[in-house]
TrEMBL record:
It comes from Streptomyces variabilis. Coiled coil: none annotated. This is Copper chaperone PCu(A)C. It comes from the Bacteria. Gene3D superfamilies: PCu(A)C copper chaperone.
Length: 158
């Protein structure tokens, strides 16, 4: 199919995000970025990351998104500048994530903690609309007292 990471290899990796399909467009790993130092607060702008894979015969475009938990949702470049729609060519993975174009929930209307769920509606030119219940990625904090092995985490902040 071309999209990697959508199946299970038997490991314990649990990727963040909601997965869905609208028309021929696969949606993977849709989630609000991990809050940096505590929850996203009212008035903050929170990054929203998602991957798309268009299985259709014709290109599509992500035109925008909306949610009730933010004043607006913009499609932005890596530097945060507002940009136009995102082209979804056929047979190619398009990753909207940190360091690339992504969605930005502007001026949050409420606090969002890691693990909270919110509804976001994505709007496509050809595939139409889909409402997803997505979560804010749960922060991981390294508990250095737990082990000498890197990468093991504790759910509580120290």
């Amino acid at each position: 199919m071309g999209a990697t990471g959508c199946g299970s290899d038997g490991g314990d990796y649990n990727p963040p995000g909601a997965n869905a399909r609208v028309g021929p467009v696969l949606i993977r790993y849709a989630h609000i970025a991990e809050p940096p130092d505590g929850p996203w607060e009212q008035g903050d702008d929170a990054p929203f990351y998602v991957w798309f894979f268009n299985q259709g015969q014709e290109p599509d475009r992500l035109l925008g998104a909306e949610t009730t938990v933010a004043r607006s949702v913009d499609i932005v470049d890596a530097d945060g500048a507002v940009r136009g729609p995102v082209v979804l060519p056929t047979g190619k993975l398009v990753e909207l994530e940190k360091g690339r174009a992504h969605l930005l929930l502007r001026d949050l209307r409420q606090q969002i903690r890691g693990g909270d769920y919110v509804w976001v509606t994505l709007r496509f030119e050809r595939a139409g609309e889909i409402a997803l219940q997505v979560h804010s990625q749960v922060p991981t904090y390294v508990d250095e007292d737990a082990t000498d092995a890197p990468g093991l985490t504790s759910p509580s902040a120290q």
